[in-house]
Hints:
Layout: H1 3-24, H2 26-45, H3 50-67, H4 69-82, H5 88-113, E1 119-121, E2 124-125, E3 137-139, H6 142-169, H7 190-199, H8 201-222, H9 224-228, H10 235-262, H11 267-289, H12 297-314, H13 317-326, H14 331-352, H15 361-380, H16 386-391, H17 394-400
Antiparallel strand pairs: 1-2, 1-3
Helix pairs in contact: 1-2, 1-3, 1-4, 1-14, 2-3, 2-4, 2-6, 4-5, 4-14, 5-10, 8-13, 8-14, 8-15, 10-12, 11-12, 11-15, 13-14
Amino acid sequence: xxxxxxxxxxxxxxxxITNSIDFKGMRTAVILSTFLMAAGTxxxxxxxxxxxxxxLIPIGLFLNGCAYAMTAVGATVxxxxxxxPSQRATATVIYIISAAAGGALVFIVGPAVVPExxxxxxxxxxxxxxxxxxxxxxxxxxxxxxEGLKVLNxxxxxxxxxxxxxxxxxFPNKPPQPPSVTANTQRLGLVEGFKTALRQWRFWHxxxxxxxxxxVFSAWITTTEVxxxxxxxxQKEAGWMSFSGAIGGTLFGMVLSRLSDVFYRKMKIIMxxxxxxxxxxxxxxxxxxxxxxxxxxxSFYFTYIAACVVTLGTQPLYYEIACENLxxxxxxxxxxLLGFLNIVSNTLFLLVTIIPNIGTMWLNWAVFxxxxxSVVVLYLFKEEYRRMDIDLPVSQSExxxx
Length: 402
């Protein structure tokens, strides 16, 4: 599933998924999501001509993007429905960062299956840095590229269909017994929940330190190849840097989520410390780029990967702290709103990049400033743990403050 296509079309489908979860439960929403994914990948894998493919592939990408809405909305609902308070943050983080892990595989699976096109220009191997008219270009490995794409598309389709079938066979709405008191507590209705959340300054406070920094980081990491190209970093090297950061963020997120579950009511402090580390890493990375600090190869890699690892591992906790502070608003409503604001901010940020002659260095400063903004806004935020107050005995709550 392409990340950019997913983000563009999640907006149109997040309301449908949120409504489906609220009224029909997780099973219906997951069936709808996996069906859209299977249908989308099937359209891409159909053995038809190029003319028809030019229509089917965009439609398939659109369906995959709609399926991605489940990733943005379902995490907190699943963790609340199936897991006790001591495991909720872990479940939410694993759910969300699994998508990041899948995105990281793009950097190695694609090039491993589909060879890079080899182009000759006037019988000389063409380079991206040289000029060549389309009439003089000749692709000498078109067959291998097409065969690789077929294998990739069929594999994606097969996995998606198997997932769809497995969800139909077994994916219950909820466990036989609720894992906590709040798991069985009635939430506000869809419309009332939206109104309640949007009227609270607490929601907008969290949105400010969640949607903007997360969307800027997401846009930044997906444009790493462009951002680092002026500094002599190749596309392959930038890809491996992003892959390392994404995989590291996945592993670190699991550790951090367990830390959040063990130390009750310390989620805000943990997030502030982690984003402070990320902010310092971004600053050091920028200072190396502009040659204020010596450009040691290990320090260049370390600062970039450290910033990615800490940011990716911490971001999912925003959804958990938002659900704690806005209860009894439905987790699906909160996640849908945060996901929608994230996509809108991401789109606006990417629109800035098309301004002529704006360059790329500002992207690095933007991700640093927004990371710093997260720390400041979180410091000013007075958190509450409304679900935890209901779910945990008083003795456990007192222990968590020690």
